[in-house]
């Protein structure tokens, strides 16, 4: 694990990333890109978790982050606001998922591998820290980055028959 996530017990974040990696690996069973997400409450307890299900559901919005945020909002009991929550995800969120984390008012976004092609937490765009928006989560990248990247590389190699 690289970096310390302010406001969260390091073991809780690391355990959440390990779980997100397990979820990501499982997504391959139904042909989805291996991305997993876990939402932690302000106390570090797991509120929700999900893997990508775009292929499984035939839904372009069924990214792991969106599914986990939806489930966390249902479990959290404060409507849609996830104040104090941490979104832990294996790959840097895209614009949709970064925007969803801002709109959900999560306190932190923690991700594994950078996504230079579509990342919206600093790589290509920086939606989560855009000063024009009314909420800006803290961002920590690089947590178990190599494990996340290796899972994605293996998936795409197999998909391309390499």
UniProtKB/TrEMBL annotation:
<dbReference type="InterPro" id="IPR016193">
    <property type="entry name" value="Cytidine_deaminase-like"/>
</dbReference>
<comment type="similarity">
    <text>Belongs to the cytidine and deoxycytidylate deaminase family.</text>
</comment>
<feature type="binding site">
    <location>
        <position position="97"/>
    </location>
    <ligand>
        <name>Zn(2+)</name>
    </ligand>
</feature>
<comment type="function">
    <text>Catalyzes the deamination of adenosine to inosine at the wobble position 34 of tRNA(Arg2).</text>
</comment>
<dbReference type="GO" id="GO:0008270">
    <property type="term" value="F:zinc ion binding"/>
</dbReference>
<feature type="domain" description="CMP/dCMP-type deaminase">
    <location>
        <begin position="11"/>
        <end position="124"/>
    </location>
</feature>
<dbReference type="GO" id="GO:0052717">
    <property type="term" value="F:tRNA-specific adenosine-34 deaminase activity"/>
</dbReference>
<keyword id="KW-0378">Hydrolase</keyword>
<keyword id="KW-0479">Metal-binding</keyword>
<feature type="active site" description="Proton donor">
    <location>
        <position position="65"/>
    </location>
</feature>
<feature type="binding site">
    <location>
        <position position="94"/>
    </location>
    <ligand>
        <name>Zn(2+)</name>
    </ligand>
</feature>
<dbReference type="Pfam" id="PF00383">
    <property type="entry name" value="dCMP_cyt_deam_1"/>
</dbReference>
<feature type="binding site">
    <location>
        <position position="63"/>
    </location>
    <ligand>
        <name>Zn(2+)</name>
    </ligand>
</feature>
<keyword id="KW-0862">Zinc</keyword>
<comment type="subunit">
    <text>Homodimer.</text>
</comment>
<protein>
    <recommendedName>
        <fullName>tRNA-specific adenosine deaminase</fullName>
        <ecNumber>3.5.4.33</ecNumber>
    </recommendedName>
</protein>
<dbReference type="InterPro" id="IPR028883">
    <property type="entry name" value="tRNA_aden_deaminase"/>
</dbReference>
<dbReference type="InterPro" id="IPR002125">
    <property type="entry name" value="CMP_dCMP_dom"/>
</dbReference>
<dbReference type="GO" id="GO:0002100">
    <property type="term" value="P:tRNA wobble adenosine to inosine editing"/>
</dbReference>
<keyword id="KW-0819">tRNA processing</keyword>
């Amino acid at each position: 694990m690289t970096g310390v996530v302010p406001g969260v017990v390091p073991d809780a974040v690391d355990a959440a990333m390990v779980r997100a990696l397990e979820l990501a690996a499982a997504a391959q069973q139904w042909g989805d890109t291996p991305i997993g997400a876990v939402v932690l409450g302000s106390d570090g307890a797991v509120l929700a978790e999900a893997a990508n299900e775009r292929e499984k559901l035939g839904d372009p919005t069924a990214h792991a982050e969106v599914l986990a945020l939806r489930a966390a909002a249902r479990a959290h009991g404060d409507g849609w606001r996830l104040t104090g929550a941490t979104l832990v995800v294996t790959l840097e969120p895209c614009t949709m998922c970064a925007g969803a984390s801002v709109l959900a008012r999560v306190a932190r976004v923690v991700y594994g591998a950078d996504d230079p092609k579509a990342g919206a937490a600093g790589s290509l765009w920086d939606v989560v820290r855009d000063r024009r928006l009314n909420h800006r989560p803290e961002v920590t990248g690089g947590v178990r980055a190599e494990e996340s990247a290796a899972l994605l590389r293996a998936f795409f190699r197999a998909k391309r028959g390499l």
